Amino acid sequence: MSNLIKSTNYISLEDKKKLKLSITYKEDLTQIEETEQNIEEDAEILSIRDEILKEAQAIASEQIEKAKTEVAAIKAEAENEIKLWWSEKREKDEDIVQETKAKAVEQGIKEGTEHAVEQVKQQYSDLINEASSIVNTAYKEKEKIIQEAEPFLVDLSCAIAEKVIHKELHDSKETVIQMISKVLTRRNEEGIIKCCVAPDQYKYIKDAKEELLLSLDPQAELQIVPDASLSGFDCVVHSSFGSIDAKIDTQLSEIKNQLNEITRKRDEHDG
Questions:
Q1: How far apart, in Å, are the Cα atoms of 148 and each of 143, 145, 153, 161?
Q2: Cα–Cα distance between 226 and 216 in angstroms, integer?
Q3: In the 8-state DSSP scheme, what is residue 9?
Q4: What is the pLDDT of residues 52-62, one digit of tens each?
Q5: For residue 234, which of 39, 174, 181, 247 is within the disulfide window of CB 3.0 to 4.6 Å?
Q6: Pick from 236, 230, 258, 243: which is nearest to 179 by CA?
Q7: Which residues are bridge partners to 195 per DSSP?
């Protein structure tokens, strides 16, 4: 039995080769199967991977589109905000510019007005000073002219007065009588009062003797005498106390002398 077994367990070289080939074949087959299985598994993995990648790409694309949309919205919002900011800034800048212009104009008007007022004040002050100087000069010239002309004016005034008086006396005999009455009034004395007049005035003066007596003391005697040395409305009154020269020329001459004396004293006082 043992021998039999031994003979049975014997494997020829050929068989060994076959066996070995068989084993190798099996191993290869197994390996192939495993490989095919691995390949199948890899294909599945690849398919899953592709599916995942596809889904990932889809998600990524969606996210990208979403992101693009959000970015576009943000960009649009940012642009709107920038436009609004610029618009508000331009409005503020315009307000600032207008306010600055208004202040500048107001300041310019204020400064211009103040400058104009100062100029007007200065011009007014200069005109006042110039006018004052002119007035003072005019007064001085006036005083100078008056001083230079005073003697002439006195003479002229006296000449005019003489003409006026003569005309008045010529036109009004009553005035002559009144003038003589005033002279006689100054002779409030008794005795003989001699009133000498021009011959051509004698008659009507004598006719007014009663009226002239009213100017004398009741105890006085009035004599009206024509005097050829007198002319016009001249009148000279004589009494025991002296004579009064009531001639118009004499009285005007006296007035002229008094006026010239007043002028001389004033000139001496003014220096």
A1: 8, 5, 9, 21
A2: 20
A3: T
A4: 878 878 888 88
A5: 247
A6: 236
A7: 224, 237
